[in-house]
Amino acid sequence: MTRISVSVDGTEAVDEIEPRTLLVQYLREQRGRTGTPVGCDTSNCGACTVLVDGRAVKSCALLAVQADGAEVTTIQGLANGELHPMQKAFHEHHALQCGYCTPGMIMAAVDLVGEVADPSEQQVREGLEGNLCRCTGYQNIVAAVRDAAAEMRGAS
Amino acid sequence: MIPVAFEYTRPSTVEDAVAVLAADPDAKVLAGGQSLLPVLRLRLAAPSTLVDLRDVESLHGVRVADGELVIGAMTTHAEILHDRRVAEHAPLIAAATATVGDRQVRHLGTFGGSLSHADPAGDLPAVALALSATMVAVGPGGRREIPAADFFVDYLTTALAPDEILAEVRVPDTAGWGYRYEKFSRMAQAWAVVAVAALVRRADGGVADTRVALTSMASRPVRATAVEQALTGTDGDSGAITAAAGHADEGTEPPDDVNGAADYRAHLARVLTRRALTAAAGA
Ligand code: FES
Ligand code: FES
């Protein structure tokens, strides 16, 4: 067992874990962050995307021990009293159907907009290349991200 | 799926990391983990110990020394994409890095990890080969330098000994060269079916030097020397480029698999080489 200390959605935690524990497993099973789903076994789908020290990563492609000392933000840590602009835009644009990809889409999109404040449609599509959606056809997701980006520019 | 259990250690010096590898032949290095974690999850590998290099400060970052770009093995793809010195001295690296994996993968995956993994469909091995980069390895006996041409041995196999670690990569300056990484893949995130790394240096209106290396055309990245010889010394117009690109598949042994038949890859190599050279030669 290895001891790690991480901040998860603003709460400091110290835990003893097996080194083989994936970050996503740790988040779901030990920190109750079941808002972060697992969508695949191959690190392709992006459903498990969270922010580690502000950067989007696939939490199934990272050991929890690798996040030792880091600040992790999941979809459950994004809203601050009210929905984050990205969450609101996904809601308003009907950018989800089954919703399975949504937590990862939103975290990846927040990361993208943090780097590219006003992404073009092409930049959104490429920026979300690591996130797969089986339902929506992406159209509304792209619209939601661009809309949220506009709101986030206005808000800052 | 969950990996088979292993021990985990996070040394803070290369020497300590090497000592773990030397003492245990089943120990493996963990860099960004973007190739290793999927392999562990599928239980295609079951190392006894993972040696995480994250805390080895000397392996991180980019610098310029003696006119060469020096890239620490643990530098992430995202860091490379944002590095001014890479953009200035070896823009081909940045161009190819932008096509690696996806955004999330580029945040964790490392330059040295991609090279040491030596997947013949990986983007950076061919780029290192085209640039004639030098790999600096550290083992129990100290440091040694391995030219890129000798580093990639076979499918997922490099010249590194099991107790050696790739520490940094030295890249000759190619500021002012035309360059292009031309990659063909069938969908988002997919590996290259074939890709071409090209560099062209023009002088006095003609082509003074040409470098072409191919991704996914053999069990390791290969230089297309016949193309290089055919283009160098010409005026680099579209006729010369088309003629040179016709040699792209010479001497290659392209894989024949679900992503592409061998003859299809040979065709792609010629077409993509023409496109890459057209961009790199500014024709
Ligand atoms: S669960 Fe699919 S990428 Fe992580
Ligand atoms: S909404 Fe169902 S997978 Fe995206």
Automatic annotation (TrEMBL), chain A:
2Fe-2S ferredoxin-type domain span: 2-78
Keyword Iron listed: yes
Known pathway: Alkaloid degradation; nicotine degradation
Superkingdom to which the source organism belongs: Bacteria
InterPro entries listed in its UniProt record: 2Fe-2S-bd, 2Fe-2S-bd_dom_sf, 2Fe-2S_ferredoxin-like_sf, 2Fe-2S_ferredoxin-type, Beta-grasp_dom_sf, Diverse_Oxidoreductases
Keyword Metal-binding included in the entry's annotation: yes
Name of the protein in its database record: Carbon-monoxide dehydrogenase small subunit
One Pfam match: Fer2
Keywords assigned by UniProt, alphabetized: 2Fe-2S, Iron, Iron-sulfur, Metal-binding, Oxidoreductase
GO molecular function list: 2 iron, 2 sulfur cluster binding; metal ion binding; oxidoreductase activity
Native organism: Actinocatenispora comari
The gene coding this protein: coxS_2
Automatic annotation (TrEMBL), chain B:
SMART domains for this protein: CO_deh_flav_C
Pfam families per the UniProt record, alphabetical: CO_deh_flav_C, FAD_binding_5
Keyword Oxidoreductase: yes
FAD-binding PCMH-type domain boundaries: 1-176
Gene3D superfamilies: 3.30.465.10, CO dehydrogenase flavoprotein, C-terminal domain, Uridine Diphospho-n-acetylenolpyruvylglucosamine Reductase, domain 2
InterPro entries the UniProt entry points to: CO_DH_flav_C, CO_DH_flav_C_dom_sf, Diverse_Substr_Oxidored, FAD-bd_PCMH, FAD-bd_PCMH-like_sf, FAD-bd_PCMH_sub1, FAD-bd_PCMH_sub2, Mopterin_DH_FAD-bd
Superkingdom of source: Bacteria
Keywords: FAD, Flavoprotein, Oxidoreductase
GO molecular function, one term: oxidoreductase activity
This protein's record includes keyword Flavoprotein: yes
Alphabetical list of PANTHER family matching this protein: XANTHINE DEHYDROGENASE SUBUNIT C-RELATED
Protein name: Carbon-monoxide dehydrogenase medium subunit
UniProt organism field: Actinocatenispora comari
